[in-house]
Amino acid sequence: IALYEESLAIEEKIGNAQGKAATLHQLAILKANQGDVAGAIALYEESLAITEKIGDVQTKAATLHQLAILKANQGDVDGAIELFQESLTIEEKIGYAEGKAATLWWLGQLFAEQKQSPTTGLTYLRQALTIYQQIKSPSQDSLEQTIRRIENNLS
């Protein structure tokens, strides 16, 4: 964390907004991993404000995705879905296939398991699987297991 904070000070000093946003994003990940969810959210929101100001859509999509995960883990499913859908829109617009697939996977699981809408969930999950197959992602097998588990719960 100390090195990220040092990096943050340098980014601020030289006026590198994109670097500052990326560093805040990385610091937020560390804070979240240490259990400081409130601190992580504050850093993500600061990063998000910068990315919106400078038009850094890829970092914005990643930050929205991470914020959505935190909201989902805190039980704010509707808030998480809203952020994931915003992230998904950006990922589709910029052609970021791997990010899109990960976001679709999260949306699928939230709809299937938290919103009691397995049909909607499976639609998202199958879209994610198609992308993972196209890009030959190692996550494909895990996603296939998730889909099978949800399908089995339907029968």
UniProtKB/TrEMBL annotation:
Tell me which UniProt keywords the record has, alphabetically: TPR repeat
Name any one Pfam family assigned in the record.
TPR_12
- On whether Chloroplast is a keyword of this UniProt record, the answer is no
Q: Which residues form the TPR repeats? A: 61-94
Q: Which InterPro entries match?
A: TPR-like_helical_dom_sf, TPR_rpt
Q: Which top-rank group of organisms is this from?
A: Bacteria
Q: Which PANTHER family match?
A: RAPSYN-RELATED, TETRATRICOPEPTIDE REPEAT PROTEIN 28
Q: What is this protein called?
A: Tetratricopeptide repeat protein
